[in-house]
Amino acid sequence: MARTFRYYGKKRGNRRTGSSTLGSAGELLFYAAFLLAGCGGLVALFAFLVIPEWRVNNEFVKHSCVVIEKRIGETKDEDDTLYRPEFHIKYEVEGVSYLVWTFDIRMAYSGGRENVQEILSRFSETTDPERPIEYPCWYDPANPESVVLVRRSSWWIWLIFIVPASFILIGGGGLIYRVLHWGKSAERSAAMAQRAARRDPFELNGPSGPEFPHVPGGGDITNSPGTTLKFRLPIGTSPGWALFGTLVACVLWNGIVSVFVVIAVGSFVDGDPDWFLTLFIVPFLAVGIVLIVVLVRLLLVTTGIGPTMVEISDHPLVPGAEYRFFVSQTGRLQVNVLTVSLVCEEEATYRQGTDTRTETRRAYREEVYRREGFEVHRGLPFETECELSVPAGAMHSFKADHNEIRWKLVVEGDIAGWPDFKRDFPVIIRPRDGGSSQ
Amino acid sequence: MNDCSVIIVFDGNGRTYRPGEELSGEYRLETAAPGEIKAVEVSVLWHSEGKGDEDLAVHEFWRFSTEDGDWIDPGRPARFSTVLPNSPMSYDGLIVKILWCVRVRVFFHRGKDVVAQKPFQLGAVPAIEV
User: Fold this and answer.
1) How many domains does chain A have?
2) Under DSSP, is residue A111 helix (H, G, I), strand (E, B) or coil?
3) Which of A98, A123, A150 finishes a domain?
4) pTM assigned to the model
5) CA of A398 to nearest chain B CA: how many angstroms apart?
6) Averaged pLDDT of chain A
7) Angle between helices A20-45 and A162-181 (to 10 degrees)
8) Quick one: which of A208, A214, A276, A330 could link to A381 by a disulfide (CB 3.0–4.6 Å)?
9) Could you tell me the residue range of the domain that residue A95 belongs to?
C-alpha cells in the first residue's frame, strides 16, 4: 500500500501517528539551531574573551605611562549599579603622545564599589609633571591607542566554554544522528543502531546476550551463592530503600503543606478565617496523612518483621522445568498465612504528551507454597524448602526499551498484629535451548 | 502514487516456526515496471504492539539498491532465507504483544515507498487469557 506525505497527527488505537518526514525535519531544524547557537557562542567567547586576553599577554608591548586622572565608572543593570575602575593615562609611542581611558582589556563592570575603590587606590595620579609617577602599561603595536594598565589570565573563562560546548555536542550529535537516518526506513535505522550497539564493548555485558536476544542476562541474580541451595536471590526493592524513599517524600510533602497549614491556622487565630486556603489545602493534607500512614506501616514492616531470604537450586529458569527453592523468614512473629507465588508481570512505558507513563499488569500468578498458623521465634528462623514448576507454556523474560516481561517469586505474609508484607525476588526465565517454550 | 503490490510467500506456507529453525520464502513485486524501482529492503523483524511505545528490532536485513549496482527485476521472484533466533518469542499478552514478520519495502525513483509484510509465529507461547 502506498504511503503519502502526512503532516497531521492521527490516533490509531493506543498510538498516535504523524508525519515522520515532518517530524524528522523538525528535529533536524531543532538540532541545527542548537549547533548554530553553540558555534556562535564559541566564536563569541573566543572573539571577545580569549583572543583579546591572549593578545594582551603575548603580543602587547610593555611600556610606561602616568595616570592623569582616575574615577569609578558606573552603569545601571536593572536593579543594581555596577562599577569598574577607569584610569586616564598618558604615554608616548614613537614620538606620538596618547591620552586614553583604560584599565584592563575587557573593561567589564561588576558589583562591589569597595573593590573598585581599592583598585583605584593602588595607582596614584601624577599631579606634578616634573615628578611623574610611572606605571607599566601594555599597548597594541598594531594600534597603540589600545592599551591596558593590567594584564590578566582568567581561568574561569574556560568554564564558560561548557555552555557552548554542550550546545555543540547536543546539536551536532542530534544532527549527525538525524542526517544518518534521514530518508531511511525504520527497519534500516534499527539495523544500523543494532550494528552500532554490537560494536559497543559495554553492550556485551548488557541485558541481552547474543544467544538469547532481549532476554536479560540475570548476572546480578547469580552472583550470590546460597547456603542451602545454589543461588541466593536478591530482593527486588530493598525495604530500607523503600523506607528511605517514603520518608523523603513524606518530609518534603508534609513540610510544604505545613507552611500553608500554619498560615490557615494563623488566619483562624487572628479572627479572620481564610476559608479558601483552608478548603484548598484539605486534599493536600489528606495526602500528607496517607503518606504518614504508609511510612509508619513500612517502618513497622521493616523493623518488626525480619529479613526474608530466598534461595533457588538453579538459574536462569526454563519453561517446563522443575526447581527447588528455599525460604527463610526471621523475626518474632505469629504468622497467620505465608505464601510464595510465581508471578509474571508485563510493563509498558509510553509517552503521553510530555509525560512518560508506565503501566504494569499481572499476566500470571501461581501460588507455589502456602502455610497457615505458625510461629517464628527470635533466633530460630522459619525455614522451608519446596518444589517450583515453571509452566511449560510460560513466556520467557523479555526486556526492550519500552516493553518488559518479568518474572519473580513473591513472598507474602499475613502476620498477627502487624501490617501485611510482600517481598519480591526477581528471576529470569529463558527460552528452552533451540526449542519453543513448550 | 505507485500501484505496485508486493506478494510474500513462505516456503511450505509455514506460519509457526521454532527458534533456530530456518525461515525461507520469496517475494515478488507486481505491476511495477523495470527501472521504476530504486531500492528494495527485506527485513525479518519483530515489533511490539500494545500499551507501550513501539519497540522494533531487525533480525535480518537486506537492501538491494540500483544505486549500489544491484539488479532489481520486478518480474522475477526473489528469495530470502534466515535462521531464526532463540528469542524473543511471539507473545500475545495483556498490554505487551510481540509480533514477528517479514517486511518488504520498495523504494521508487518517484513517489512514495510501498510496504508489505507477512506475519509469522516464533515459538508457541499460548496467548494470555484475560
Assistant:
1) 2
2) coil
3) A150
4) 0.69
5) 7
6) 86
7) 150
8) A330
9) 61-150
